[in-house]
Amino acid sequence: MNQSLSSLPPGVRLGVSPLSWANDVLEDLGANIPLETCLDDAAAIGYQGVELGRKFPRDAAVLRPLLDSRGLALASGWHSGELAERDVEAEMAAVAPHASLLRDMGSSVMVYGEVAMMTPGAPLDAPMSKRLVMPTDEIAAYAVRLTEFAKRLQDAYGLRLAYHHHLMMVTETLDEISTLFDRAGGDVGLLLDTGHAVGGGFDYKNLIDRFGDRIAHIHLKDVRGKVMEMVRAGDLSFNEGVRQGMFTVPGDGDVDFAPVADFVRNGCYRGWLVVEAEQDPELAPPKPAVTDAFDRVRRLFA
Description:
Layout: E1 12-16, H1 35-45, E2 49-51, H2 60-68, E3 73-76, E4 78-81, H3 88-104, E5 109-114, H4 136-157, E6 160-164, H5 174-183, E7 188-193, H6 194-199, H7 205-211, E8 215-220, E9 222-223, H8 225-233, H9 238-244, E10 247-248, H10 258-265, E11 271-275, H11 286-300
Parallel strand pairs: 1-2, 1-11, 2-3, 4-5, 5-6, 6-7, 7-8, 8-11
Antiparallel strand pairs: 9-10
Helix pairs in contact: 1-11, 3-4, 4-5
């Protein structure tokens, strides 16, 4: 382990998302920043791994040397799932190339984001109030499909599914997450995202208290409360909120990270902590931002 991270509990590693350098959806954000810059910065700062981003090659034979040469591991990668509207067989076929890459790169967790049943057109450009909500009578069947998919993902690829609660998707609020996870089997892991919890209007500690044993992956994201309030009050879109700076790196916003640090420190979690901030790199230069975040996270465990 990097000596500067020796205070992290055994089995816990600190990674960083490439979203600080290049946005996956808003492709103009970071369009001019090469992948090599992201990887060089992450390694130089001391991060132990990265998640996948849109500029990453999707061939393990190409990606592995890029990461190995910098001492970085592949923590995970996002899969845009559609189990809200399609069956498990179709989802297994759709996930195969992505899951194979994660497996071949030594990852043990796959981030699942539900992108079906979203506002038609460009859902992340729609006003936040236009989010579609899954009908109550469909949740049980969705949970069954999700559970079966998680089992098959583990069996076929050795990957734990980490379900990402997310603004503008079918599990945004605490009630929605709780209703789904009360019905889904234990094979379905939870991705705890501190920023999306705050954005969804609840204290993320509620997820730790209720589903701590299901947490399979953690995104450390901060929120600028005044910007989030402005986004909600103006009924802006998710993408406009990102452009306005509603998210930032840990320690630069209003989120209290002590509860998640306590959760990890007390031996309740083994896996990746991933610093993530969807920001405009022109407004928030990536390397200084993620360097500050690295230092703040390290101090949480000092």
